Sequence to fold (221 residues):
Amino acid sequence: MTSTVISPSNSAGVAAALPLNTGSNADSEQRFLKLLVTQLQNQDPLNPLDNAQLTSQLAQMSTVSGIEKLNGAVQSLLAQSGSSQVLQSAGLIGRTVLVPGNDLAFKQGVNMPFAVDLPKTAESVKVTITNAKGDTVRSFDLGALQPGVKTLSWDGLGDNGVPLAEGAYAIHVVATGGGASVAVSALTYTKVVSVAQSANGVELELEAGRKAALGDVRLIL
Fold:
């Protein structure tokens, strides 16, 4: 009768043989112990498994088990954090926030506040407002600006000083510095309708069907 001999020289180790990425942590430990006992029972008497190798395999299993438990704890914390953020963000419902966007819904007799967000200094910043047809109706030359958020307001007048009709308008911002363009974005004010948890974190549902991430909020009124 013959028996299978598992020796250190022909085995990559019990831990390497375990499919630790499948099943639960308890299943992995059971498979590890079963393979370890089998290895001890069938080891080569002339070349037995030494204590250092046994300790190494036990340490590998302990490390993998610890990592799985840590991952589970982190996922639990992230889930709790997400739920907490949603509850905290619920206080924004009905509030007006300043978020990235270039749409303006102009109404007669109402000044339209907006802003531009610069990540770094720009030597020249120019803002144009266009109507639904894409025609420029108002221009602002802001000159040089430092990094940060610059708040502005449009009175609804065209460049010729004539009041414009109510309707949809858009903001366009161009910034340059050192002979090159500078990244810049327009910001508009809008109300928060609801908040929800999405795959990317807390998401704000805004008026006119717009959406924004919680991290996009620059100002709360």
Summary: The longest strand covers residues 185-198. The helical segments are 14-17, 25-41, 51-89. The chain has two domains: 14-90, 93-220. The domain at 93-220 is CATH 2.60.40.4070 (Immunoglobulin-like).
